[in-house]
Amino acid sequence: MRRLSPGRPARLSRGRLARLREERGGIAVMLALLMPLLFGAAALGIDMAAVWSARQQVQTGADAAVIAVAMDCARGDCGNIKQTAEDAFWANDEAAKLSNLGPGEGWIRVNGREVSATQKKAWLVNHFFAGALGEDTGELSVSSYAEWAPFTEARSELPFAISYCTYKSHAASLGSKNVVTLGSGTPGGSCYTPQGEHVNGVGINFTRPDSGECGTTTVWKSTYRFQNGSLPSECSQAYISSLVGRDVVIPVWDASHGQDFRVYGYAAFRVTGFSTTGGGRLTGYFTYSARQVDDTTPPPRNAPDLGARAVFLTDK
């Protein structure tokens, strides 16, 4: 074996140098061939991300559209559903900022308590890089569904509950704005629910408020206890005055035993005035009212419909 002298670089033979030049040339050729594929893959990834972002933003706009229409319908008047849907969609910040979104067409439909929206013509999203390959735009379409149903759980703004008989006598025609006064002296009377349950007792009672709150949280079909006395200190004059002109939720009971009562359903009451006389009196009228709920599990659809309604998105 030949030893290399210290300090002297090793010399490659002409054959080895030729092979190295060939390998370097081969790598350069491979890179040249792969570069379009690498750039194409990167461009495809960027364009796919843009389409995904566009889909998310359009979906948010479609959700806003069906919720807006469902809210109107739940209040008793669907109105111009096309205009409502368009206004709600474009009022959505993310959808409105999507400058590269081409024109699209869709339809919205109301079927009883259900509202659905989908695309009749796909939206066009401009491609940033794929245009160089002749693919200037890509298509996407979305669908969204909303529904409304009577409340089955609610936090009422005031610690009141009324009997079904009181509700029945004052809310014969929801939306008619028949002004009434509710207070501790409101008569209850005797009547029957549509399910045949006999109701008899005082018309309106105080309920136990939530800790540190003026209002009360209750659940449909659950039993709670009336509370003697007057409005708690949390129900300040300033707080109650802030409710004037707003819709409040009032639990309606159908059965009572001593101080206990069972929640039959929930009514909506538009407050037009309040007096501290006799422990507190509300003036206003029963109406339809809607609130959006964010629960992932929609409420049951079979609760009595007394005017207070929940609006929520569904999977269809």
TrEMBL record:
Domain Putative Flp pilus-assembly TadG-like N-terminal: 25-72
Protein origin, superkingdom: Bacteria
Protein name (Swiss-Prot/TrEMBL): Putative Flp pilus-assembly TadE/G-like
Database matches in InterPro entries: Tad_N (IPR028087)
